[in-house]
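Q: My labmate handed me this sequence with no annotations at all. I'd like to see what the chain might look like in three dimensions before we decide whether it's worth expressing. Could you predict it?
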Amino acid sequence: MELVIRKIGNSTGLTLPSALLRDLGLSVGQVMSLDKTDDGALVLRAKSTRKKYTANELNALCDFNAPMPEDLVAWDSVKPVGNETL
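A: Here is what I predict for the chain of 86 residues:
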């Protein structure tokens, strides 16, 4: 497949055929990363998108009956110092 670098407004870009986007599972607005290999080849990859969780989803993963970790228990027993005492 050949692509032509074109002037698009004040920018320059490549136009990807919709069939290719569909085959690759890509969509308009998707963030991509572009790398150059040592031999000059370009590698275009879709950046993985991380799911954004709601507080309810995160809380559903918690075991509220689990014992408190030792480091947090120790932190709770530390005496205040400096401006913490105000």
